[in-house]
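Chain A, query sequence.
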Amino acid sequence: MPFDPVTRPLTPHEARVLATLMEKARTVPDSYPMSLNGLVTGCNQKTSRDPVMQLSDAEAQEALDSLKLLTLAFESSGNRTTRWEHNFQRGVGVPEQSAVLLGLLMLRGPQTAGELRINAERWYRFADISSVEAFLDELQERSAEKGGPLVVQLPRAPGAREQRWAHLMCGPVDTTASQPATGSTTAAPSPALQARMDALEAEVAALRNTVQRLCAELGISPDFSPMSPPGQE
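Chain A, predicted structure.
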């Protein structure tokens, strides 16, 4: 019987270990199957992870043992050490495209269809956003006989153009948690937007330093007075 997250949801540690195996199988095949040490390093990456975790070897091994019982992971003998592989597609009963989307959602948290298409580039190249949405819809409408829905579309956040999707591999998701508290007027920027803002700030700082250096060579003083807001003088 296919994996049923309602009867036996994954723990956050199990989801991270499983998704990391799925990621590395596609992005660094030369290092796959994975040793426990390599797997822990992948699980604890600071980038492309939401939330960031700090799993110990013991916690990762415990998750692997549980995933093995669920037939979602298995051991493969290596020359010197035990190595691990995932069995996601067969264990859950989904095609490759659906497995890619679920793996990304487990690793990076809720995302829009557009974000999923971009983040999937190294895993699987979707033709367009419509194809991503088609597989998401299929996962959301999955029948009980196949194990039930595996994703859910979250309510649209204020000011957002697209709705985000979340996985259900760890059980039901509180869709109200993505909404701002009553009385809130602004929402925190997404990780992608924050990264762009940080990059722009760094670029502006570099340009400012360049202007200061050039002005010093020319013997003039740079004017860095702030600009007036639109509509004001």
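The first strand starts at residue 34 and ends at 35. DSSP finds eight helices and six strands in the chain.
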